[in-house]
Specification:
conserved putative lor/sdh protein from methanococcus maripaludis s2 fold; Elongation Factor Tu (Ef-tu), domain 3; 3 domains; 15-stranded mixed β-sheet; 4-stranded antiparallel β-sheet; 19 strands; elongated
Length: about 350
């Protein structure tokens, strides 16, 4: 009887927990117009890196310069009035000491000086505010990262009635992935790692990221955020993991699978699921004896890893297990085994993803 067989070997087999997540920048900053005006020019390339402090946009600043000049004129006027009130107070002080004037006249002059000082201070604040408003016409990058597409073009009116969104700048190295785990998985994790609360295992690098094309991200990540509560509607716990992202290969908005090893079965023997027969809650496989005969063998199974079972007892490393062609086999039937090189893949290919 021709069959396809596999020589089994003992190995350490991790059992993974996988969850679907969405990527986001470690910092995502929305750039908005803080003053109303017509957009004058754009100074960056969409989708290209920018550095903190780089000029991104300029808004027509002529009205704001005029407001600044007006505020400076009011400050000069208030300062002159304050200086005159100071001179009046200084002149009337000696006259009051010689009782040449009444105390009421000196008190009026002193009150006028204090009022003029307050007016000068208010005018100075008006100049500072005008300078701030003028500075808002030059919109700078608050962080280093990658700039998104611009939402406005030169000539558009921005900031009228609301703070208009201009673009978004994201820091992509490291990149963050937000995902949810079930309440049971969260409780299991805390029991296995009682010393590690979410957000406190930055140095552990226990999480892996599988990208949408099935390629394993070459860098491991760690949890940086755990929500304060379990979502009562879904029974899930929100987590966020951080992964190094050299070259900015991963971009915000991608879907990926975040996984970690729940446990590792040491020195275990994996066999394909299709090689296992189930009968009345017992499991068995066919092995090939040295005399090239089929032998019916009962086995004890552990958990399933993908399309494979972990055999905890009943098989020894180096034995040959029939993978295909077991439907017509019987115990002791001579077989002609074609040995395959089927291998349990516990991880996707580790080649780096290409942008």
């Amino acid at each position: 009887m021709p069959v396809i067989a596999l020589v089994v070997q003992a190995r350490d087999i991790p059992s993974y927990v996988q969850n679907i997540g969405e990527t986001r920048g470690s910092q995502d900053v929305e750039i908005r117009a803080r003053v109303a005006g017509f957009l004058h020019s754009i100074h960056f390339q969409e989708g290209r890196p920018v550095r903190e402090g780089d000029l991104l946009y300029t808004i027509d600043d002529q009205p704001f310069r005029a407001n600044l000049q007006q505020a400076e004129a009011l400050l000069a006027q208030a300062t002159a009035a304050w200086q005159k009130a100071q001179r009046d107070t200084n002149r009337l002080g000696p006259l009051k000491e010689r009782r040449a004037i009444s105390g009421q006249q000196f008190d009026d002059a002193l009150a006028a000086e204090r009022s003029a000082a307050a007016s000068a201070q208010a005018a100075g604040a008006g100049v500072s505010n005008a300078l701030i408003q003028l500075g808002y016409t030059r919109i700078l990058a608050p962080i280093s990262g990658v700039a998104g597409k611009t939402e406005v073009k030169p000539g558009n009116l921005v900031g009228q009635g609301q703070n208009t969104l201009l673009t978004t700048v994201s820091t992509l190295d490291p990149v963050h992935v937000r995902f949810s785990v079930s309440e049971q998985e969260y409780l299991g994790w805390r029991r296995r790692h009682p010393q590690d609360a979410p957000g406190q295992d930055r140095e552990r690098d226990t999480f892996e990221l599988v990208l949408a094309d099935g390629v394993l991200h070459p860098h491991r990540g760690s949890i940086v955020f755990g929500d304060r509560e379990v979502d009562a509607a879904t029974g899930t716990f929100l987590l966020e993991a951080s992964f190094p992202n050299p070259g900015n290969v991963i971009r915000p908005g991608q879907f990926a699978r975040v996984r970690y090893a729940r446990e590792v079965f040491t020195n275990s023997i994996p066999v394909p699921q299709r090689a296992v027969q189930e009968l009345q809650a017992t499991y068995a496989v066919y092995t090939v004896t040295p005399e090239s005969k089929a032998e019916f063998r009962k086995v004890t199974l552990g958990p399933r890893v993908g399309d494979w079972y972990v055999v905890t007892s009943g098989l020894r490393p180096g034995e040959t297990v029939v993978v295909d062609g077991i439907q017509k086999l019987q115990n002791g039937v001579p077989v002609s085994a074609l040995v395959t090189n089927l291998v349990l893949e516990t991880a996707p290919a580790s080649r780096p993803a290409q942008p």
